Amino acid sequence: MTQNPSGSLRAVVLGGGLAGTLAAAALAPYVADVLVVERDTVLPETAAPRPRLPQAAHAHMLWSGGADAIEELLPGTTATWLEAGAHRIPIPNGMVSYSPAGWFRRWTETHYLIGASRDLVDWGVRTALRAAHPNVRTRTGVRITGLAGDGSRVTGVRILDGDRREDVLDADLVVDATGRDSKAPEWLAAIGGPAVEETVVDAGVRYASRRYRAPEGTASDWPVVNIQADPRLGTPGQVVSVIPIEDGQWHVSLSGTRGGEPSGDEQLFEEFARGVRHPLAADFLARAEPIGEVAVYGRTANRQRRYEKAAMPTGFVVLGDAATSLNPVYGHGMSAAALGALALRDTAAKTPVGAPKFARQAQKAIAGPASAAWLLAVGQDRFYPDAVGEAPSLGDRLAARYVQRLNRTAIGNFLVVRALTEVMAMKKPATVLGSPDVLFAAARGLRRPLLDGPQLTEREQSVLNREPLRAAADEPA
Fold it and tell me: N- or C-end of the chain: fewer Cβ atoms within 10 A?
């Protein structure tokens, strides 16, 4: 790769969250100066919450595709996470998962995910960026008011600083990584830029999350427990995920689509977990100690803005949730942002950042992993009752039936498990599910019978053999 850190080019990245930090890492080897501007007045020096990141209170899965992309951008980040208490969880053997087709077998490892709080993930990336790239600076307490330039070229960004003083930050490249709240369409309109095609699919998902202290003997080498919804049932989709994180804790998230949302009431938290398609997660929670309050979050619509299709001005790129925001239940937001940042870096390695065609090429490259994650999300969400957005087409329905067939086949066929996890972990595109060997396996169907219950290790079962700390709501105290 050709690097040009000593040139005169300057990039301004809008947003100091995960996507913005990774965008800065992607650009730092190819420009002289990267300035990250952030609305928060302080970015934590430790793995602490940020006030403008409410979704951090909910369980996050960083799939191996995203973790590997981060490691490629910022080598050593994974070790930083693990040293701070994060877990490297092998998939599928480290996941107890009840799919719409039944219980998955716990085959040998094909991929992995990082079990950690969002606060720890972000802190690890910020720490790695500071150590690796001294030409990256951060300016906090800054509000973005618009873009500088015109419809053909963006030349910087207009801001208000902490003292409400107006200023313009000149830049050869501006990257919008401001997340779901991005005002990029309005900013573009104000300078005579293009209208951007937007699609929204909203199943009305609401989250309720709480942390638990892991029962004795379960703080390490513990699986993810995931009870999935089944869109075929014609009822609201309800999900429970239990993910081991740092400090000997489980991060537990409940979610439900429109008409089946969880409550913020602590007394109803475990009752909801017991009412999903299988009570296994609730049985584990009854033997763990809850920590803190229940956090609720409801901004979960899938929103896709097709910047790569618009006649965008030179010098402006949109990355992460600012371009494609996803229902968090599938755990692909962080990975899609990381893969988008890697695509930005790879574009900079081939085309000078200051070249007129750079932004257009980078936006198209970023759209690839984002579109893959979009299809995974809306391919499920369109089928839930009262979902808002374009109804599933015949093609959508046929694709959903094929995926259902694959999920069922995967219970008894390792080849299909590998293909599905490659897509889910964002290591390969969904086209691998149409390869001849996968098609043949789907046609043959199950090689082994369906399981009649979850595959639990002796240690996992021993936890369920303990007396519950709390009785279920429908049982006598």
Answer: C
